[in-house]
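FAQ
Q: What does a multi-component entry look like?
A: The components come first, one per line:
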Amino acid sequence: MIKVAPSILSADYVNLQKDIEKVDKAGAEYLHIDVMDGSFVPSISYGPNFVKAIRPITKMVLDVHLMVQNPEHILPAFIDAGADIIGVQVEATQHIHRALQIIKNGGVKAEVVINPGTPVEMIKPVLHMVDQVLVMTVNPGFGGQKFLPETVAKIAELNQIKQEKGYDFDIEIDGGVNNETVVDCYKAGATVAVAGSYVYNADDPAERINALKEATK
Ligand code: DX5
Ligand code: ZN
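Then the predicted structure of the entire assembly, as tokens:
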């Protein structure tokens, strides 16, 4: 069964605490927080103070996805804010190894993220040091986009390396995930599914979380 990480990008910001409690009660393992800088991606969302504000109101694993150009400088602020996992996009830095070191030295789980157009080859040199790899299944920047099926082969490729080398990182997928698209990703080796609009643009988010789990039994 896949672990579920609802993305609060699609939540109701005015009633955020309620929306977080809903997915917590429904058994979601992570809370996915999308940080967008208006440069690496066109949109701007929220920063470290947002994570700091959420930290005391939930025990959920805070899974912070940085869509931020040159993230090195801002990493300490997210570490201090109480993130449990911090993901950096390999395309956003010339120093991916250093960025992951900063996260790990801060006592936080380190994640590397690859866009749909980025080959798995790009992250091979850092796979020994990560706790999670995020394979983007849409181009980052917006919720509610259509799943890109060509990304499934990359999940399988990554999973093969994981098995061969005996690594134990989680493989997360993000973008266009629903109870249908999650199935092939799970079969290919995905262990964590981010879902924004599928969970939050529904009358009953709990039912949607359950459907993702049922589809990957
Ligand atoms: C996209 C973000 C996602 C987004 C997913 O750039 O990284 O986490 O919230 O939204 P859905 O699940 O609606 O595609
Ligand atoms: Zn995300």
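Q: Is there any commentary attached?
A: Sometimes. For this entry: DSSP finds eight helices and eight strands in the chain.
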